[in-house]
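I'd like us to work through together how a protein chain folds, taking it slowly. To get us started, please write out a protein record for me. Go ahead whenever you are ready, and we will take it from there:
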Amino acid sequence: MGWGNASGKRLRFEELFRGIDPRGTRILDVGCGLGDLVPYLDSITGGDYEYFGVDIAPALINSAKRSFGNTNRQFVSANILDWEDNQVFDIAVLSGALSFRVSDNEALAKSVLTRMFEKTTRCVCANFLTSYVDYQLPKNFHYEPEKLFAFARTLSRRTKLNHDYPLWEFTLQIFHNQEPTQ
């Protein structure tokens, strides 16, 4: 979904789950696209998790269902902000779904992070393009990490910002009631 090569995608997923063991959890993948997170999770958990992917693009959801759908791997076409499902998840992740420029990216990101936090009991993990780059495409929005970190701290004091890996992005991890392990 515009994220480059397979090694970059894997690193991105590793960063989302840095210090987090997803085994035995219910995971919500916001902006799941084609469901590319499923094979990664399978590789690190042996399939010991439940997965629910949400995306606004019906064609992507249909493809993800064909590739990965089963009893423990479900997909639905919906906007997370309008989604009226009462399910609660342990972990919610978002990988790159808020990279395209819209009228107010920061407000959208804050709304989505808040909604994800409301739907979880353990943590929210999300990555964003960083403003600390030497080139930006006009179609993309690059976030100031410190601004999203400050917002995340309004949701929980147990918040981590990872900006130390070799991609032009950063990852936020926002925890509920337990301390981050790393």
The helical segments are 6-16, 37-45, 58-68, 105-118, 145-155. DSSP finds five helices and seven strands in the chain.
